[in-house]
Structure formats: C-alpha cells, structure tokens
Amino acid sequence: MKVLARIALFMLLLGAMQAWAGTLTVTSPNQGDFLGRTNSIAFNIRDGVVQVTVKATITRDANPSERIVLEQKFTPDVDGKVSGNLALNFNQSTPEGAYTIRVEATEPGNSYQPVTRNVVVDVKIPEFLEFNPINGGFVKGVVPIRVRLDEPNIKEWRVQINSQDIPNNSGTSGNFTVLWDTANVQRDGPQTISIKVDDRANNSTTKTINVTLDRVNPSINVLLPSGGAPIRPGTNIPVALEIVDQFTGSAVETGVTAVLRTMDGQFIGAVARRSSRANGNVLTWTGRIRWQNNLPGRFKLVVNATDRAGNRAVVQEVTITISGR
Asked: What CATH superfamily classification does 127-213 receive?
C-alpha cells in the first residue's frame, strides 16, 4: 500500500509540474493599433524554464487564407525571463485593412496563454493632392497655405516656416488652410514652408515649398514713346518699357498692362505686345500702338505693372500728341 501511495504522490507531482504555466505578455502592438511598413511584436516571458518558441500568426480578416507566420526560439535568463520581439514588416503591395495577430509561446513541460491583438494595416504613405503656394512662387502679406491630402488615418499634420512653428499650424483634417502672417518676418527673400504629415501607422511624408517673400513694389520706366515731339499721322508708335523689381524673376509679362486713354480717362484701346525679355530683376516689354484714324490729337499711354507677389507699381502715364490734330 505504501508503494502505491508513493507512486500516486509521484504522479500527482509530475502532473502538477506539467500543468505549471508561464506568462506571455504582448507589449506591442496594442489592441486597435495601426501598423505601417516597419513594425515589431514585442513581448515578455515570465517563468520560462528551457527554450521557448514564440510564434505569431498575422491573418487578414477579409481573407483568412492570407497570413504571415513568424517564429523564433528564445532562451530564458536565470530568472526565467525573456524580453524579445519579432520583426513584422509589410510592403506597399500588402492589402490594407483589419488583421488579427495571435501570439503563442510553447515550451516542453510548460504552457502559456496565447494573446490576440486586432490591428489595422496601413502601408500607404500620405499623399499631397493639392497644395498652395507653389514651389518657386513669390508671396507677401498674409499667405494662405492650402493643402488637400489623400490619407484617411491622419495622426497629425504640422506646418512650419523656416523650421519654426506658426500659430494654428497643426491638425488632423485632410483638407486644411493655415494662414502665415509674413509681417513677423524681418527681411524679404527666400523662405521655406515645410508640411509634415504623419498617419496613425507612423507613415510619414514631408512637402517642402520654397518661396520668396517680396514686399517691395516694382517700378516702371517708359523708354518709348518719350512724349516729346508730335507723332506724324499714319505712323505706328513703338512702345518700350522696363519693369524693375527687387528679385530675379519677380517681374512678369502677364502683370504688365499698357492701354490708351483719352485725356479725360476714357478707354481707347490696348497696346499690342510684341515681345518681353527678362534679364535678372529687369523685364523689358515692347509693343506698338497701331495707327487708327480715329485717334484723338492728344491721348495718354497708361502703364500698370504687378509683380508675382502682387505688389503694384506706381502707374506711369505719357501724353502722346498727333501732329496736325
């Protein structure tokens, strides 16, 4: 009887040893997390005995046949502990959406409770559909920085000027406008707008827009006609203008208007443009006034110029006289 009792006690102890359970804790990702292209399944093992095999199965909810299996062996330290991770990487062709991650640990003579996490895979980098101002543009005053994004899971966007924050420069909407008051910038010249977008899966992109702050009005020099000697009837009248601005490329032909008006300001017609040529910060504009029999004896050439930033020059007027009228 004593032998049988000892055998029973041994079997009881053996069964208790086999039922002895270790602890598996998954520290990352958390339930409901968004996963991007580069991720890690981090875990802790407690009460490990020998070598522990950790296996993670990542299943696409919409199609359970699509799955990734990761498996690696870990050896507990003298206290029976393991702190490890499994690299979980996706590429841009990975289907996005809901996934289930099941993490299991197995070990001879030990058992662990599996851990499940429901996550969302998002491998698409946020995309800029529209933005303004454009790269290489000229700005002044209060500049609206307008952006439209293609990204459903925005974590945060942030706008900076020359690597510095400005008021109301962050948010989570996919369509936004940030107002940049250039009055806070001391000097005209090159400025850098940067727009950084992070989504909830830590996919990130940055748009850099280089602009020139220009708050100086251009000036107009009327080279021809001089407004001196009267013009003979039947003659086409050449027009030559110089538009001078503070920065190369800021003066533009589409910003120049040259029209004819009567001495009391009534519109007669526009001057036909023949050519324009930019040389540094100077735009040379040429045109001609075609002869018309109904031209009055005295009339005015009126020239306006607006640069790329919207600065307007002082209007220039030249009085033209037709001889014999």
From this structure: Immunoglobulins (2.60.40.10)
